[in-house]
Structures are given as structure tokens and as C-alpha cells.
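A further point concerns the way the authors explain their paired sequence and structure data. An entry of this sort, consisting of the sequence and the corresponding C-alpha cells, reads as follows:
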Amino acid sequence: MFTAEFLITSFIVVLIPGTGVVFTVSTGIAQGRRASFFASVGCTLGIFPHLLATIFGLAAVMHTSALAFQVLKYAGVAYLLYLAVATWRDRSAFAVQPMLGNSSATSLVTKAFLLNILNPKLTIFFLAFLPQFVQPGAASPLVQLLGLSAVFMAMTFAVFITYGLLAHAFRKVVIESPRAQAWLRRAFAAAFAGLAVQLARAER
């Protein structure tokens, strides 16, 4: 079940930058290491509903229902555009030692969670991806799917944490440069907008 092929493929999939990575990196640079941790938590939790949908067959419904796919897709597009505009308009300086209270930590987790849960491509991806690694004739394929999902989520969390730590290290280079901060915000805003366009063009 946990073959080298599954582990390597999962690692490559998780490593490829997407919406979650962009959000985690931007959070790590703007708000610091602790904030990037909560962003990683939210992004990881955001893939859980997609995994459950795959396990319990709801992904097939999403795949066959054009309306369900389009509704979720455009909700995701709207949210990505919101993040792009909010990032572009943000004029606050990057904090050297950010004070991250419970409310802001919850807000970060919620934002990251919504970022992934509103992406219907994840459900379709897991529908095509996970069943490939269930052993033929397995006595309990559901248990195997749960195990594969748990490993994928753990790998996602570990990789996102690493991205966040790298972003935190990088922020020390630009923390005292308002010009660099402005360009980074524009770059992240453009990335969110680009991801929104990519999602809008996605087909089932």
C-alpha cells in the first residue's frame, strides 16, 4: 500500500507550488514563522474534506455534476481574487516580531482552510490519484484509503511547514526594505490572481 511509488508521487505533488504554498509563503514572509505554522495547519485541514469525498464516493458526484463543480469552482475563484485584492491593497509593514493572538491564529487557519476546500480540482485529483494505490483484492479498501490519506496529509503538513520556515528565513533579508515589501505583495497578489484565472479555466 505505502509503496515507494506512492510516497515519491505524493511528495512531488505536494512539493509543486499551488494556492496553499503561495498562501503559506506569503504569510511566513509577512507575519513570521508562527503565522506560517497556522497557515500550514489550515491548508492541510482544507484537503481533508476532499479526501473524505473521495473515500465515500462524493467525488464521483462532483465529477458527473456540472453544476456542483461550477458552483464550487467559482466560489474558489472569487476567494482567490479576494485574497489578491486584499494582498495588493495591504500597506502595513512586515512585523519584525509579530504578536499572533488566538483570534488572528484562528483567522489564518480559517483563510487557509477555505483556500483549499473551495478548490474542486482537489476532489477530482484525489478521485483519480488515491484508488491507484489500493491493493487489488484488499480485504478492506476503505482502511487502505484512510491510511493513504493520512500519509498524504502528513506529508502535506511537513512540506508546508518547510516552505513556511524558508519564507521566514527569507523575510529577514527584506524586513527593512519597504520597496522589497511592496514588490513582494504585488508578486503574491499577482500569483493569487493567476491561480484564480487558472481555476476558472479548469474543466472537470
About this structure: Residues 18-200 form one domain. The chain has a mean pLDDT of 79. The two ends are 28 Å apart (CA to CA).
